[in-house]
Automatic annotation (TrEMBL):
Gene: D2HGDH
Keywords (A to Z) from UniProt: FAD, Flavoprotein, Oxidoreductase
Source species: Apteryx mantelli
InterPro entries the UniProt entry points to: FAD-bd_oxidored_4_C, FAD-bd_PCMH, FAD-bd_PCMH-like_sf, FAD-bd_PCMH_sub1, FAD-bd_PCMH_sub2, FAD-linked_Oxase-like_C, FAD-oxidored/transferase_4, Oxid_FAD_bind_N
Name of this protein: D-2-hydroxyglutarate dehydrogenase, mitochondrial
Enzyme class: oxidoreductase
Gene3D superfamilies xrefs: 3.30.465.10, 3.30.70.2190, 3.30.70.2740, Uridine Diphospho-n-acetylenolpyruvylglucosamine Reductase, domain 2
Catalytic activity: (R)-malate + A = oxaloacetate + AH2
């Protein structure tokens, strides 16, 4: 059987791309790449021109959120929580900190504003003091003093979290790691990086790329998030499918405990049985057990060949079957598998003016391969694409190998969160469910909420096995506010209606 040759001219990209598919049971012809193999397009139906109107993004990062529709409500008022009996910051306390770190103590309300509000602008604290230590010793002195004075402290990294955990609830002292951004060492033989907790993820990746390595973690917020915060929240990210979780790649930590004690577990050995593995207590602890001040992490070598496929599927069942086929055929070169529904793409197009090169599908998947041999990787990817196209699992798609075009495709996935912030309040959750049940939660929530929610969209790291990121975008007008509370299966998911300070369950999923 012959699938027609496809030739497209992308006026924005300024070159022709070509794909030639000749497939039957006895003969296969490999994809013929043009002289500028930045992207090719595959399609079951008649070929159509798909212009790309989006301007290239210089880097993948969380972009500034749109202005909120109204003043952000204080967390304490929104959730009706009471302040614990901690001391209040006095002038003597400020004087002590000024003596400890001159010029790095912030009390100006205007300067404090961005540190008191989360990225989604959904919660707000009222801290009156921000500290910017540069060393673990300074963090130790700060925490020892606060411990003796019974002062509450809120550790904060890049403040890119989407669940409000990085900002104070009341008037806690904000302890920012923004100035703890030194790279301590890097071993080119073992690939082990040791750095302070305030290093920005993208900066670390750029540093490593110059040496032929990369960070084992990749996030949409890479341009502003801190590695210490990544470890404290046990961030999964886009590379989890290939390199695993931070519990496996973090080799050691330096942590300052609440009383100022410094726990030095900054080992740089892949195998270390000399005692308890204490670092695991702090990975994912979100700053509740101590402040991470330095990290030792194992970094993989930079792939020499990267391909990115953006494909359209007609159902979530096809998304799952494509994933199964993908894992079986791509194996060791598969580095990411993301999915998103058409509602996500509508929002990205409407609010961010990004153009989707693959339209008309209810679901989309983004597949990344990375390896050391481009010919080998392209052959495996082509065989995979051939199979999913013939079987009907995929009806449309586009593939990029050029770095600039890869970033454009990634922006469609990574900037969904930003697009969600343009219409009102966002309730966004990472929810763990069996893979086959992932999208049922989206459809059930849409049915339960009806017109009360502007949109309910599903997207996320399907490749990590059990994660669905779901966002409920609700109207900012009126008295009604909905929130989704989740617990692990087999328990129920309850949607609760909140009017003022009264909260009653209205539905269970």
């Amino acid at each position: 059987m012959v699938i027609s040759s496809v030739v497209h001219h992308h006026s924005v990209w300024g070159h022709w791309t070509q794909l030639r598919w000749l497939m039957n049971f006895h003969r296969r012809t490999m994809v013929q790449w043009s002289t500028a193999p930045a992207q090719w397009t595959l399609k079951q139906k008649e070929p159509v021109l798909m212009p790309w109107g989006a301007s290239p993004q210089s880097r993948r990062a969380l972009h500034p959120a749109s202005p909120s529709f109204q003043e952000v409500m204080l967390t304490s008022e929104r959730y009706n929580v009471q302040r614990l009996p901690f001391s209040h910051v006095s002038n003597d306390d400020v004087a002590f900190f000024e003596c400890l770190m001159p010029g790095r103590v912030i009390t100006n309300p205007e300067e404090l504003k961005p540190f008191n509000v989360d990225w989604l602008k959904s919660v707000q604290g009222c801290s009156k003091l921000l500290l910017k230590p540069q060393t673990a010793a300074e963090v130790s002195q700060v925490l020892r003093y606060c411990h003796e004075r019974n002062l509450a402290v809120n550790p904060q990294g890049g403040n890119t979290g989407l669940v409000g955990g990085s900002v104070p609830v009341f008037d806690e002292i904000i302890l920012s790691t923004v100035l703890m951004s030194q790279i301590i060492s890097f071993d080119k033989v073992s690939g082990i990086l040791v750095c302070q907790a305030g290093c920005i993820l993208e900066n670390l990746n750029q540093y490593l790329e110059e040496k032929g390595f990369i960070m084992p973690l990749d996030l949409g917020a890479k341009g502003s998030c801190h590695i210490g915060g990544n470890v404290a929240t046990n961030a999964g990210g886009l590379r989890l499918l290939r390199y695993g979780s931070l519990r496996g790649t973090v080799l050691g930590l330096e942590v300052v405990l609440a009383d100022g004690s410094v726990l030095d577990c900054l080992a740089s050995l892949r195998k270390d049985n000399t005692g308890y593995d204490l670092k695991q207590l702090f990975i994912g602890s979100e700053g509740t057990l101590g402040v991470i001040t330095a990290v030792s992490i194992l970094c993989p070598q930079k792939p020499k060949a990267v391909n990115l496929a953006f494909l359209g599927c007609q159902s979530f069942t096809q998304v799952l079957k494509t994933f199964t086929t993908c894992r079986a055929m791509l194996g060791e070169i598969l580095s990411a598998y993301e999915f998103m529904d058409d509602k996500c793409m509508e929002l990205v197009k409407r609010h961010l003016k990004l153009s989707n090169p693959v339209t008309g599908s209810p679901f989309y998947v983004l597949i990344e391969t990375s390896g050391s041999n481009s010919t080998h990787d392209e052959e495996k990817l082509n065989n995979f694409l051939e199979k999913v196209m013939i079987s009907g699992l995929v009806t449309d798609g586009t593939v990029a190998t050029d770095e600039k075009k890869i970033k454009m495709l990634w922006s469609l996935r990574e900037r969904i969160t930003e697009a969600l912030t343009h219409d009102g309040y966002v309730y966004k959750y990472d929810i763990s469910l069996p893979v086959g049940k992932l999208y049922d939660l989206v459809t059930d929530t849409r049915a339960r909420l009806g017109q009360c929610a502007k949109n309910v969209v599903g997207y996320g790291h399907l490749g990590s096995g059990r994660v669905l990121e779901e966002s409920l975008r609700l109207s900012s007008s009126g008295d009604y506010c909905f929130s989704l509370f989740s617990v692990s299966l087999p328990h129920m998911f309850c949607i609760k209606e909140m009017r003022g300070k009264q909260e009653q369950p209205i539905a269970c999923l």
